[in-house]
C-alpha cells in the first residue's frame, strides 16, 4: 500500500544522499532505506487508487519497453569508486589545478555552495580523464569504448544524467574551467583543451548558455564562484562556440538560393553530390569559426539535452515494423542531423571528448532501440527521485483519486476522455463561444482553484518582496487547440464586420487578459508556439493572428522599457521568445505573466522557477515524455535552507500527465522568503582608498650562493648613435616606384627598456629549468635603470628604442650590465614568494557581488560595505570596522570578502587557503614610496574550528616574510584580534610595530633588509 509522505526531503542538497524511500510494486512505500539509491532504468509512477482495490491496480512498468527494474551496473560500480576516491578530500592522482578546483567546489564553508549532484557529475568526468586506469583504480574506459563503437561509430561520448532543474549548465561551466585551466598550466598535456563546442536543441537554450562565456556579465564562473580567485586569470584563454544543432545542416550556396526545385535537379544531373550545397568540411569551418582556424587542438563538445542526439538503426534490424508518428519521425531526423554534424566535426577538426548532459539520456521511440533504453555510455546518474529526496526540485503532484463514476482518475488520464473530441487540424471557420469538453473544463477550473490558493499566498507573502506571481502552464497538441484554450482562459475580441466592437473576458478570473470589458495593457496569459520560436523558422500566419493583441501589448511594453528603441526592427518571434524566456524573472518583459498556453511542449531549457500548476492536453505515450514536460515546472523558487540545513519541499500540481513519484495530501509549507540582497562593490570616486595585494601560490626557501650588487665605476659608455643600425631605409627597384621605411616610430620610456634588459639578464644568467629566481627581478630592474642613466649615451636624433628593436644590441647591453654586477657570499636562508602566474596582483577595484549576509556601510574603504560573517552577522567584525574608521593612522581598509586575497599554508600534509578578515593600509611616513599594509584576523566565536596556529604562523613568518623580501610589494604585517575590549589598544600597538618594521612583519632572521632599517620608523 502506497503511503502518504508528508515531507519527501531526506537529504541535504550539498552532501551525498544517504537515505532514500523504498519503491514497491505500487509506488513509494514510505519506508526509508539507508544508503544511496541505486541507479535503475525505470521511472516509477503513482498507482491509481480507483478501481478494485488491490486487484486491478496499474503496477509499475517501464511503459512500452516491457522492461522492469534493471540496475545500471556501470553507473553504480563507477559511483562507488568515485566515492572512494572523493573520500577525505585528497582527490589523489589529479593535477594540482584539478585538485584545487575540486576542493574549492567541495568547500562546505563557501557562501555560494555547489550542489552535490553538480559536484558528482564533474568529479566523475574528471576521474575518468585523470585517474581511471591509474593508481589502483579500474580503467573504466575499457567498458565505455565498446559501447561507443557500437552506438556512436567510435565518437568518444560520456553521458552525465542529471534531473531537470539540478543545474546542468553549472556542470558545463565547471568542466570548461577544469579543461581550460589545466591546458593553460600544461599546454602539452593531451588530456586537456581550451576549445569548446556547445550544441543545443534550440535557440532558447543556445541564448541562455551565454552564461558559459567568461566575458558575459552574468557568467556562471563569477556568479557561482566556480574558480578560486587566483586561477580566474587563466580563463581568458578559453574559446567557446555555442550553437543549436540546426547549424549542422548543410546550407545552400548563394548562387542557388531562389532557384526552382526542378531547375536545381536539372543542374545536378546524375551526380550524387550536390555542387550547390555546402560541404561537411565547410560546415565545420563555419560552426567552429569562433574557435580559430584549422590545425588547432581538438575540441571538447558539450551536448545539452543530449537525448536528442543519437545514431538510430533501421527498425528492421531491431525486429520492429511499427509505423511512426510524424513527431517521432521528426525526432529521428533531428537526431541524425545532430549526430552526423558531430561526425563531421570529428573528421575535419578532431574531438577530444563529448560530454552529454540530459535528465533523460534515453533512446526515443522509433530509434531502433527500446523506448527508454538508457544510453549505455551514461556514467553518472542523479535521478529525479534523488533530486526530490534532496529537495533540489519541486515535487510533481498528480491526481490519484476522484469520485467520478468510472475506474480511471479523470484528471490524471485526461487525454483518454477528450483526445478524440478535440480538433486535429486548423478549422475553416472561426469558432465562436467554444465550449470545452466537460472533463477538460473541469480540469481547467479545478486547477485554477488550486492556483487561486497559490496566488493568495503570493499576494500576502511574496509580492511584498518583489517576487513574480505563480505561473500556470498549459501544454496543447496543436495550434488549433491552443488557440481555443487560450481564448477560453484569457478572453477574446468580439469582431463584427471586420471591426473589434468589444472584448469578452476569459473564464478563469486570475488569468483573464480582459478586465471590466477592456484588455489589460500587460497580458496575464500568453500564447506560445514554442516549436516555431525555437527553430527560428518563423510563426505561422494563423498563430500571428491569434496572438496579435498579445504581440501588440508587448510591443508597447517594450517601447516603455526601452525609450527610443526601434521596436519595428524586432520580429514577432524575437519578441515572443523574449517574453517566454523571461517568464517569472524580475524586471524583465515576462515578469508578470501568470499563464502560458503552449503549442507542443514548452521548450527544453525554459527555466522559469515560478511554475506551480501544469495542465497537459495531449497524449503522453511514455514516461520519458511525461518527465520532459513535467520538468518544465520543477525548478525551485526558494533555495533558502531551514535550521536543519535542508530545503523545504515545494510542489507543482500536475493534471493530464500520468506521472508522479510521491503522493501527498498534506498542506504545502510556505517557501522561506528570501533575505534582502545587498549589492557590494568598489565605488566610483573612492580610488584613493584602493588597496592592492599580491596573489601567492606558495613560498620558496633558498640558501643562495651569492648576493649581488652593481659597480659601474669601470663600466664603459654604451653609445646609441649613427655607428649602429640605421633608423630608416629607402627601397627602390630598377624601375617603378620606391618605398620608404621610416623605422620604428614608437617612443620607449627608460623604465620599459630597463624591464626588458632585466628580463634578459634574469633568463640568461639566473633562471634555469630547476632554479627560477623571480625575486631578483626588481633589483635587476634597478641596476638596469642605473646603467641607462649613468652609462648610456644617446646621440641627437636617436633613441633608446634601439635597445628594444635590435636583439643583438640588447644582448650586448645585457652583457655589459652583467659584467658590472658584483657577487659575494651570503649564506642566510631566504624565503621568496611564488606569485600566481595568471593573476599576480589583485585589488579592491575588482570587488563586486551580491550578498544576503548582514552588512555595514563604509567610509574609509573603496568597497561599499563590510560583509559580516555568521548567520546573524558578526559583532566583533562590526566593532573592528568601526575602530578602523576612527583610527587616524589608517588610510584605507577592506573586508576580505570576494576580494581574492588568501594565504596558502600547509596543515596535516595538505595545502589549504587561509582567508584573513581585513586588510588595512596605513598612511605613508615622510619620504617613503611604498605602502604598509596590516593583515588583521578577528578570532571570535563565529570562526569555524581549524588549524588556527598554522594559519597565524604561516601568515606572519612565511607570507609576510616572502612578500616583504620581494621588495616591490610594500611592507606587510599580521595581527590577530582576540577580544573586542582590547581592539583599540591592540590595533594601535600593531600599527606602531608595522611602522617600526618590528617582528610583526615576520621573523627578522628571514628578512632581507638590514637591521638598522627594521629598527627605524615610528608613527
UniProtKB/TrEMBL annotation:
Matching InterPro entries: Helicase/UvrB_N (IPR006935), Helicase_Restrict-Modif_Enz (IPR050742), P-loop_NTPase (IPR027417)
A Pfam family (short name) is: ResIII
Q: Which GO terms describe its cellular component?
A: cytosol
Note whether DNA damage occurs among the keywords.
no
- EC number(s) in its UniProt entry? 3.1.21.5
* Domain annotation Helicase/UvrB N-terminal: ranges: 153-361
Q: Which domain of life is it from?
A: Bacteria
Which keywords fit this entry according to its UniProt record?
Answer: Hydrolase
GO molecular function terms here?
Answer: ATP binding; DNA binding; type III site-specific deoxyribonuclease activity
Q: Gene3D superfamilies from the xrefs?
A: P-loop containing nucleotide triphosphate hydrolases (3.40.50.300)
Query: What's the protein called, per UniProt?
Result: Type III restriction enzyme
Amino acid at each position: 500500500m502506497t503511503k502518504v509522505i508528508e515531507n519527501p526531503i531526506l537529504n541535504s542538497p550539498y552532501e551525498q544522499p544517504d537515505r532514500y524511500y523504498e519503491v514497491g510494486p505500487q509506488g513509494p512505500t514510505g519506508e526509508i532505506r539507508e544508503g544511496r539509491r541505486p541507479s535503475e532504468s525505470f521511472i516509477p509512477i503513482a498507482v491509481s487508487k480507483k478501481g478494485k482495490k488491490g486487484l486491478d491496480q496499474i503496477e509499475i512498468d517501464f511503459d512500452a519497453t516491457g522492461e522492469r527494474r534493471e540496475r545500471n551496473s556501470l553507473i553504480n560500480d563507477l559511483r562507488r569508486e568515485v566515492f572512494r576516491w572523493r573520500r577525505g578530500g585528497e582527490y589523489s592522482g589529479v593535477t594540482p589545478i584539478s585538485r584545487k578546483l575540486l576542493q574549492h567546489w567541495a568547500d562546505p564553508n563557501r557562501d555560494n555552495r555547489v550542489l552535490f549532484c553538480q559536484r558528482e557529475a564533474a568529479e566523475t568526468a574528471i576521474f575518468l580523464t585523470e585517474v581511471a586506469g591509474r593508481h589502483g583504480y579500474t580503467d573504466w574506459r575499457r567498458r565505455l569504448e565498446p559501447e561507443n563503437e557500437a552506438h556512436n561509430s567510435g565518437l568518444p561520448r560520456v553521458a552525465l544524467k542529471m534531473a531537470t532543474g539540478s543545474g546542468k549548465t553549472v556542470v558545463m561551466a565547471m568542466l570548461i574551467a577544469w579543461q581550460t585551466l589545466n591546458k593553460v598550466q600544461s599546454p602539452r598535456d593531451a588530456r586537456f583543451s581550451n576549445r569548446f563546442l556547445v550544441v543545443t536543441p534550440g535557440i532558447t537554450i543556445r541564448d541562455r548558455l551565454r552564461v558559459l562565456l567568461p566575458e558575459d556579465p552574468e557568467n556562471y564562473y563569477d556568479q557561482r564562484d566556480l574558480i578560486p580567485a587566483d586561477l580566474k586569470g587563466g580563463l581568458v584563454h578559453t574559446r567557446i562556440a555555442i550553437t543549436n544543432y540546426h547549424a549542422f545542416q548543410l546550407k545552400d550556396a548563394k548562387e542557388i538560393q531562389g532557384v526552382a526545385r526542378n531547375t536545381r535537379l536539372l543542374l545536378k544531373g546524375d551526380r550524387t553530390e550536390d555542387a550547390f550545397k555546402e560541404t561537411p568540411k565547410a560546415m565545420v569551418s563555419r560552426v567552429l569559426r569562433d574557435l580559430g582556424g584549422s590545425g588547432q587542438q581538438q575540441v571538447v563538445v558539450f551536448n545539452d539535452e543530449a537525448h536528442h542526439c543519437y545514431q538510430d538503426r533501421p527498425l528492421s534490424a531491431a525486429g520492429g515494423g511499427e509505423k511512426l508518428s510524424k513527431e517521432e519521425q521528426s525526432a529521428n531526423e533531428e537526431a541524425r542531423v545532430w549526430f552526423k554534424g558531430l561526425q563531421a566535426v570529428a573528421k575535419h577538426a578532431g574531438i577530444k571528448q563529448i560530454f552529454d548532459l540530459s535528465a533523460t539520456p534515453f533512446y526515443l521511440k522509433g530509434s531502433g532501440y527500446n523506448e527508454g533504453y538508457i544510453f549505455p555510455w551514461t556514467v553518472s546518474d542523479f535521478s529525479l527521485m534523488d533530486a526530490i529526496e534532496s529537495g533540489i526540485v519541486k515535487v510533481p503532484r498528480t491526481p490519484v483519486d476522484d469520485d467520478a463514476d468510472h475506474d480511471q482518475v479523470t484528471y490524471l488520464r485526461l487525454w483518454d476522455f477528450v483526445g478524440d473530441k478535440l480538433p486535429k487540424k486548423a478549422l475553416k471557420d472561426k469558432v465562436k463561444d467554444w465550449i470545452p469538453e466537460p472533463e477538460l473544463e473541469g480540469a481547467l477550473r479545478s486547477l485554477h482553484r488550486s492556483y487561486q490558493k497559490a496566488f493568495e499566498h503570493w499576494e500576502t507573502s511574496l509580492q511584498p518582496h518583489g517576487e513574480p506571481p505563480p505561473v500556470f502552464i498549459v501544454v496543447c497538441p496543436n495550434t488549433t487547440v491552443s488557440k481555443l484554450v487560450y481564448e477560453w482562459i484569457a478572453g477574446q475580441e468580439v469582431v463584427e464586420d471586420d471591426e473589434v466592437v468589444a472584448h469578452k473576458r476569459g473564464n478563469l478570473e486570475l488569468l483573464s487578459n480582459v478586465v471590466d470589458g477592456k484588455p489589460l495593457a500587460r497580458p496575464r496569459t500568453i500564447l506560445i508556439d514554442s516549436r516555431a520560436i525555437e527553430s527560428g523558422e518563423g510563426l505561422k500566419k494563423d498563430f500571428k493572428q491569434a496572438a496579435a493583441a498579445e504581440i501588440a501589448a508587448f510591443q508597447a511594453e517594450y517601447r516603455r522599457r526601452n525609450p527610443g528603441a526601434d521596436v519595428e526592427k524586432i520580429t514577432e518571434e524575437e519578441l515572443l521568445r523574449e517574453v517566454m524566456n523571461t517568464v517569472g524573472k524580475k524586471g524583465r518583459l515576462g515578469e508578470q505573466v501568470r499563464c502560458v498556453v503552449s503549442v507542443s511542449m514548452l521548450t527544453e531549457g525554459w527555466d522559469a522557477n515560478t511554475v506551480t500548476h501544469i495542465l497537459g492536453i495531449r497524449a503522453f505515450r511514455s514516461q520519458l515524455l511525461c518527465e520532459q514536460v513535467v520538468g518544465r515546472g520543477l525548478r525551485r523558487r526558494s533555495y533558502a535552507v531551514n535550521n536543519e540545513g535542508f530545503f523545504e519541499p515545494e510542489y507543482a500540481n500536475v493534471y493530464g500527465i500520468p506521472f508522479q513519484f510521491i503522493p501527498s495530501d498534506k498542506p504545502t509549507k510556505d517557501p522561506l522568503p528570501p533575505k534582502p540582497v545587498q549589492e557590494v562593490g568598489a565605488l566610483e570616486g573612492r580610488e584613493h582608498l584602493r588597496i592592492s595585494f599580491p596573489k601567492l601560490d606558495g613560498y620558496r626557501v633558498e640558501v643562495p650562493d651569492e648576493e649581488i650588487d652593481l659597480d659601474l665605476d669601470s663600466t664603459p659608455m654604451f653609445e646609441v648613435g649613427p655607428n649602429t643600425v640605421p633608423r630608416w631605409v629607402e627601397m627602390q627597384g630598377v624601375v617603378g616606384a620606391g618605398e620608404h621605411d621610416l623605422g620604428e616610430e614608437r617612443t620607449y620610456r627608460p623604465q620599459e627598456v630597463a624591464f626588458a634588459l632585466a628580463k634578459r639578464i634574469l633568463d640568461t644568467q639566473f633562471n634555469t629549468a630547476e632554479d627560477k629566481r623571480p625575486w631578483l627581478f626588481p633589483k635587476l630592474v634597478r641596476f638596469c635603470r642605473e646603467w641607462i642613466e649613468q652609462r648610456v649615451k644617446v646621440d641627437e636624433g636617436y633613441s633608446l628604442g634601439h635597445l628594444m628593436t635590435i636583439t643583438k644590441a640588447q644582448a650586448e647591453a645585457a652583457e655589459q650590465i652583467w659584467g658590472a654586477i658584483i657577487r659575494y657570499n651570503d649564506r642566510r636562508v631566504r624565503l621568496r614568494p611564488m606569485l600566481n602566474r595568471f593573476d599576480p596582483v589583485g585589488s579592491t577595484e575588482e570587488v563586486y557581488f551580491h550578498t544576503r549576509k548582514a552588512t555595514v556601510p563604509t567610509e574609509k574603504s573603496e568597497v561599499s560595505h563590510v560583509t559580516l560573517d555568521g548567520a546573524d552577522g558578526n559583532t566583533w567584525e562590526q566593532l573592528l570596522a568601526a575602530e578602523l574608521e576612527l583610527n587616524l593612522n589608517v588610510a584605507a581598509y577592506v573586508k576580505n570578502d570576494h576580494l581574492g586575497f588568501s594565504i596558502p599554508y600547509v596543515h596535516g600534509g595538505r595545502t589549504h587557503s587561509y582567508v584573513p578578515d581585513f586588510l588595512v593600509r596605513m598612511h605613508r611616513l615622510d619620504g617613503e614610496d611604498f605602502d604598509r599594509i596590516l593583515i588583521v584576523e578577528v578570532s571570535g566565536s563565529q570562526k569555524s574550528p581549524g588549524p588556527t596556529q598554522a594559519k597565524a604562523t604561516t601568515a606572519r613568518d612565511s607570507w609576510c616574510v616572502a612578500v616583504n623580501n620581494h621588495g616591490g610589494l610594500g611592507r606587510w604585517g599580521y595581527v590577530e584580534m582576540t577580544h573586542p575590549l582590547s581592539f583599540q589598544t591592540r590595533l594601535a600597538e600593531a600599527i606602531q610595530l608595522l611602522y617600526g618594521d618590528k617582528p610583526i612583519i615576520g621573523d627578522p632572521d628571514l628578512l632581507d633588509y638590514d637591521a638598522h632599517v627594521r629598527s627605524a620608523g615610528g608613527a
